[in-house]
Amino acid sequence: MKHLRNLAVACCSVLLLSQCASKDEIRDLSYQIRAVNQKVEEVRGITVDQMQKRQASSVSRLDEVQNEVMQLRAVIEENAHQETLFREQSKEDVASLKTMIERLQAENVARLKTLEDRVSQLERNLDKLTDARIREAEQRAREAARRAEEARRRTVVAASGGSGYVRLKPTGRKVAPGKSARVETPPPVTPSEPGPSVSTGVTPPPEAGSGGDRFSRAMSLYKKKNYVEAYKAFEEVLSSNPKGDEAAETLFFMGESLFARGDFDLAILDYQKVISNHAGHPRTPTALLKQGMSFEKLTDYETAKIIYRKLVAEYPDSAEAATARQQLESLQ
Is the overall model pTM greater than 0.85, yes or no? Predict the structure, then answer.
């Protein structure tokens, strides 16, 4: 454009100076001016067309950009909508999970309470069953003692013709089923002779204990394995002092004397007196153990297992409880 302007100025200058030019020169100059004008028009047309084309291309590109922007805006709006739905669904899921967890916790608490009640009931039933078995054993022991006393009296009367006294001596010992079928005949037991040598597994207290001379004398007889006389001596000690620690100790060794002689039914009764009347005495776990062993000797294995379980439950850290566990394993 600047070039065309310079040409026009030149032409005007030529016209001003044409006064002195010839007609031919003026004609040539006019021809040149027309050519220049034509050239200007061509350049203008070409420039306008190019500008129009560029404008049309820019408009088209702008439309495409607008379309892309609209598409992107639609995608963004859809994502925002999906995100809103996801958040709402997540909130519902979290609330549902919380409700489910609370319901499960409530159910577990109720189940745990039910299980605790059942365990407590089973423990009470077990205690009742144990007490019933013990009372039954005591009753059997009393009945056996009564029948033995009646038989002794009848035998004495029959042997003496209604008068006099005959000393009875054992002819054999009980043998549990499944052990040995042979019946051993021990030597006769008299008041001056020691009884059968049976290990009780109990360490006796010192002779000069708190029980005085009579208790020391009874313990001396017990250590000499004179269980018959030892039992009588312990009875005398108990009659003079039926309460306190010495009474528990005395009752325990009365049971030990009977256990050593094989009178397991009667030994159970004396052990039970220690268990029932002196629960806090150190001899009580041992009394429970020996009571279970007495039932085992009498082949009442179910009652023996009940006694062993009671010992393990009430005195779990004692040495007797360890022995009871071993006995339970052997009875399985």
Answer: no
Per-residue pLDDT of 103-142, as tens digits, reads 888 888 888 888 888 777 877 887 777 777 777 766 776 6
3-state secondary structure 47-70: HHHHHHHHHHHHHHHHHHHHHHHH
Chain length of the chain: 332
Angle, helix 245-261 to helix 264-277, in steps of 10 degrees: 160
Tokens at 157, concatenated:
């009367």
The amino acid at residue 290 is K
Instruction: Check if the beta carbon of residue 263 is closer than 8 Å to that of residue 275.
Output: no
Asked whether 229 and 191 are in contact (CB, 8 A), the reply is: yes
- Dump pLDDT digits (tens) for 262-291: 999 999 999 999 999 998 899 999 999 999
Examine residue 58 and state whether it is found in any structural domain, yes or no.
no
**Domain boundaries, position 324:** 212-330
Tokens 């001016």, located at residue? 33
What's the number of domains the chain is made of? Answer: 2
- Cα dihedral: 22, 28, 31, 37 (round 10): -90
Q: HSE of 202 in the Cβ direction (CA atoms, 13 Å)?
A: 26
Burial bucket for residue 144 (CB in 10 Å: 0-12, 13-18, 19+) = middle
